[in-house]
Design brief:
The complex is a heterodimer of chains A (384) and B (211). Chain A is built from 14 helices and no strands. Chain A has 384 residues and is an all-alpha fold. In chain A, α1 packs antiparallel against α2, α2 runs parallel beside α12 and α6 runs antiparallel to α7. Chain A is globular and about 65 Å long. By secondary structure, chain B is an alpha+beta fold. Chain B has a domain of 118 residues: Alpha-Beta Plaits. In chain B, 38% of the residues lie in helices and 14% in strands. Chain B is elongated and about 115 Å long. The chains are: A mainly alpha (384), B alpha+beta (211). The interface between A and B is medium-sized, with 20 and 19 residues.
Chain lengths: 384, 211
Amino acid sequence: MDQLPITLKTWLVSFAPEAYRELVSAIISTAAIIGVFASLFALTTVLERKGLGRIQNRFGPNRVGPFGFLQPVADGIKALIKEDIVPRAADSVVHFLAPLVLVAPVFLALAVIPMGRNLVAIDLDSGVLFFFAVGAATELSVFMAGWSSRNKYSLLGAMRAIAQMISYEVPLILSSVSVIMIAGSLSTVAIVDSQAGGLANWFVFTPWGLAGFILFMIAAAAESNRSPFDLPEGESEIIAGYYIEYSGFKFALFFLGEYIGMFAVSGMAITLFLGGWHAPFGFLEWVPSYFWFFGKLLILIAGFIWVRGTLPRLRMDQLMNFAWKFMLPMALVNLVAAGLWHLLGTGVSRWLICSLVVVGPYILLGRTLFHSNNVGKRIYRYAE
Amino acid sequence: MLGKGIIKGMAETARNFVGSYVSEDRLTTVQYPEERLPQKEAARNFPFLVYDGTEAEAGLRCVACQICEKECPPQCIYITKSKDRKPDHAGKPQFYPAIFDIDISVCMSCQICVEVCPFDAIKMDTEFELSTTDRFGGLLQHKGDLSRSNTYFQKLHPTDAAEADARLAAERAKAEAKAKADAEAKAKAAAAAKPAAPAPQPAPVEPAVAK
């Protein structure tokens, strides 16, 4: 049962002629990833809308199909039959390419995520590096979309997106470097293997791991343009940001790309910090490994939805200050903590020292950055 | 400490999320086609024609005076007067509308037609599910579509209906009293004229009201 997808694949590949086996195997892996994650996308859109509705004491979609779970089908049909509008002034080639340039890399990024025991499309020796390199390509697509639409709102949105994504790329990568330091490998499979053996070995249950995980998730929310970092879209300010001029299926592709990007980065968080496909306890090992991966993924997605339902959108200066004045120093401090963790051997002392190294700067930074400017109760003065 | 506010906010939204499943009172949404809110008595949408009794054609209160047609600000009413007459609710022969059309795509629900009608013949409906696939013919309502019984009106706007009914009953009573007085006067005149000349009859009088 655990190896069912792999046996299925080898069985399918065995039908192909000898020369094409490698190609067929690659195609099957790709098709499986696209199929699984596209359906997960459909499921997530409806769950997100229902969850947000419940957070706001509404029902959410409940009209199409049982409990509204066929809503994404209706949305998909609508997106497909909508008119595809390309503005006359737009650069039509770049305008057309932008959604594809977004969707292709986010699916590529999924290729290095181990979703179960032996269940990884390609086990690269530098998988983490590949992931971040490919993930950075989404910035290109965002700017292509913003620039080619020839619309001031979309250009503003694209510029915001670029500024935000580049700023948050730094803490995102730095927080994952601590894991690479401890695991001693860039291979995602090796990182997952180093966390084998239950909850205690997951990196998230160490001081540097917890801090790294939180930093990683914050940066991930910013990377995937999720609320509260959804300034590039900013419906109330710049309408829809860089995809203002997109309609129909191109818009749906952007939407898809954004969600798949969120899944990919959540999958990376699981790989780096949450023990990948490993079960939390030894006696739960009989549950197929991919259930654990997708269970963890759904929990992280639920967290994203919860945050989206809670936090208001940041202002641009707050966003930048947070990235450069808080996230970056904390990520660097976290590297020091991870180094100390490695050097101090096993014992209680390293828990204490590493916790201090992480928590001290956190409190100090929090005090100096966010409480120094005398924010009191606002006093309103009216004309006499 | 940094992040305390975020945790507080997250707890609040989590409470809302769970609470919406636990207590039904939190969900204020009325799921419209299945559930409906009761309408306010003063609700109004488009006009309709009132008829007394059970037959729309016979009991229609409208006498085709065309005041509403003239007063209608967007001019959405079209009336053609009949050639013949039929008795109204008090038994008096009146014209009736041969054609009475209201284009509800033009109507602005101002209720002026209701206010100017001296016969309490046109009132405001509360029906709002009027969508149609034909925006010309589908939204042009003819006399048959517009006619509603008085009982429907009484159910819709009880206060207004009671007022109108009282007014009409008073009118009817007056007409009856007048008819009775006329009949008495006629009888008296006949009695007075009998001894002198029994032959000449007075000009034909309108028939007295039944009931």
